[in-house]
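Complex record, two chains
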Amino acid sequence: MTATPDLTPTPGQTVGPFFGFALPYERGGQLVDQAHPGAVRLYGTVLDGHGDPVPDALLEIWQADEDGNVSTETGSLVRDGWTFTGFGRAAVDNVGRYTFTTVEPGPTREGGARFIHVCVFARGLLDKLHTRVYLPEADQPEGALAHDRLLASLPEAERATLLATRDGQGGLSFDIRLQGEGETVFLDVEER
Amino acid sequence: MEESFDHAHVVTSSDSATSTQNEMTAQIEALHRAYREGVAAGARVEDKPRIDFAPYRSSVLRHPTKDLRHADPETIELTSPAFGTRDVHPLEADLTIQHGGEPIGERMIVTGRVVDGSGRPLAGQLVEIWQANASGRYVHKRDQHPAPLDPNFSGVGRCLTDADGNYSFTTIRPGPYPWKNHHNAWRPAHIHFSLFGTAFTQRLVTQMYFPGDPLFPLDPIYQAIVDEDARRRLVATYDHDVTRHEWCTGYRWDIVLSGRGRTLFENDLGADHDDDHENGDHR
């Protein structure tokens, strides 16, 4: 027996089909109230390798506020309607559609790209997946997307999977394709 | 949809319940054998589950086919949402007192320590669990298998880790339950765990199992972790020091989150993590 503790990370497992009574909570997807100035709808559909909606996925987002500050406020689970915690959690509906009400994050560093971090869980998905929702080019600091290391490393078609689309009502549309045509780029963001 | 792999087993549908357990077990064993032969020949040890594991039918169309793309974590990814006593009441850690009476089943304590990859305790972090009741039934409309619901058990708990990274739940030992992956498929008893670290990249959702479960070799979800040592990391140990005299049994399960999980201080927020922009531009 050695005294060295095993510090290999504990493996993940699928969230399974029955998280619905445990993980989602009231107003989990509302990081701000819809009446908040600057409130924006972030929405989309989670799709499988056949292009069919995934009706049992859970998404979490984590983001800076409009000024690029990272919130250290507690209270995500109680949602007082006034405290911006930067965290949101929403299950998709029966047709794979998710919706968050949030604000568009500022850059966390001068000239950095503005994005929302997303973590994806689903029945059938054996481990979590990470990705980023970048705001459209028009809403980025000058040159931010061009200088973003991740985006710059991707072929155009893959890069496009990480950019939200502005809809006619000002909302941000972002579909997540787990597999196949237009498969979303998922990230290994572990520290090296 | 046909998904073929080594040793000539073919999965014909992502939701077919026509395969037998023997066919499924043979598929699992073939994938494991190929993994062990690969490691013996110098391939890397796989600490994580495979996301492409055909014996778990639902994974066939739901796993990305491209490798994960490495991205240097940015400020937001080196931090994590803060949870506190606003979010979680201490009584939420006891799943046996949520209703008017005592739930049926083996009362037990599940406790353990949450640390990061350098062994540092993760204090004040949110831990969420959910599980079936003693008869293997979830309080969920999609779980329709004919086992009784327990009016005194919901199977949902939360807590915050203490200053040393410890969590503790009082609950009922969950039962195994059938599912539709293949004919006569049964999941080993497990408790679902959800964990946060100090960096959002450490986010973990997993399942804790019980020692010696005879269903282990038969379960495509557990066996999607092809490495035996890695699988063992999901199995709690019985701990008589946790067991309480004439009250309940005790299990210990420690959890390691990925990465160094370095603590960010106020003046780190907004600091530059991109080597291309070493201009010290703090807000």
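Note: Confidence is low (pLDDT under 50) at residues 1-15, 263-283 of chain B.
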